[in-house]
Amino acid sequence: MTERQWKPLAGVDRDCFACGTENPHGLKMRFESNGEQLRSFLTVRPRFRGWSNLVHGGILSTMLDEMMSWTAIHLTERFILTKGMNVAFKKPVRVGTPLSLNGYITERLSERKARVVAEIRDEEGEVCASSEGEFVLFTMEEFGAMGIMAEEELETMAAAMG
Ligand SMILES: CCCCCCCCCCCCCC(=O)SCCNC(=O)CCNC(=O)[C@H](O)C(C)(C)COP(=O)(O)OP(=O)(O)OC[C@H]1O[C@@H](n2cnc3c(N)ncnc32)[C@H](O)[C@@H]1OP(=O)(O)O
User: Fold this and answer.
1) pTM of the predicted model as reported, rounded to 2 decimal places
2) Where are the domains of the chain?
3) 135-148 residue pLDDT tens
4) 128 CB within 6 A, ligand 1
């Protein structure tokens, strides 16, 4: 069986703390999709440390939330909000070391909701942190009605989904 091809996804929100291409203070995460899962590769800079040389747990949680969010957006082609997430920190993660993340949908709970998992692995492929989150899914019209983003932004984002 041939492995599905990984394709880079466009970063459309320039100022997002996690994925913004222009945010000088952010993580600048990038994503790829093979249509079934998403993945991301990242080396966390020392500025995001907490205890000594360890990546701060809040930063790891942000990375997991972002991984799950992009997964939900691209695999359902809907706008999303994180309703809740649980995180397990399994192994310390050091700043300056290459990490890989992956995300996938475990359950489409309803037309409106999906359960998503994300994992952070070290260079040896061991899972250092993982999360499970519940995501509420919205159409562009519903998301627009919530006043979260401007009309032009909504359309740019909708065009980049899938
Ligand atoms: C494309 C390119 C990618 C770009 C990536 C860009 C960056 C992305 C970055 C992402 C960054 C990271 C992401 C973040 O960090 S997102 C930021 C963190 N999360 C939040 O701020 C969420 C705050 N919470 C809420 O707004 C509510 O609690 C939500 C909406 C989550 C649930 O609400 P509620 O507690 O009420 O839920 P329920 O379980 O009782 O469900 C009730 C029902 O109502 C439906 N419902 C609820 N509200 C609305 C609504 N306004 N219009 C239409 N329908 C609505 C709902 O679907 C359900 O439908 P049904 O099940 O009955 O059918």
Assistant:
1) 0.95
2) 7-160
3) 999 999 999 999 99
4) no
**Domain 7-160 grouped into CATH 3.40.630.30:** no
Q: Are 14 and 20 in contact (CB under 8 A)?
A: yes
Lookup: tokens for 20: 């913004």
Q: How far away, in angstroms, is 95 Cα from ligand 1 center?
A: 32
Amino acid at position 98, single letter: P
Ligand 1 atom with minimal separation from the 146 CA? 51
Burial of 123 (0-12, 13-18, 19+ CB in 10 A): exposed
Q: Which residues pair with 91 in a beta bridge?
A: none
Interface confidence (ipTM) of the complex: 0.91
Tokens of 140: 């562009």
The pick from 19, 68, 136 for probing ligand 1's pocket by mutation, whose C-beta has the most ligand atoms within 8 angstroms, reads 136
SS3 (DSSP) at 21: coil
59-100 pLDDT, tens digit each: 999 999 999 999 999 999 999 999 999 999 999 999 999 999
Q: Is there an atom of ligand 1 within 6 Å of 65 CB?
A: yes
User: Which amino acid makes up residue 122?
Assistant: D
Q: Does the pLDDT at position 12 exceed 90? A: no
CA distance 42 to 78: 25
What's phi and psi for 7, nearest 5 deg? -125, 135
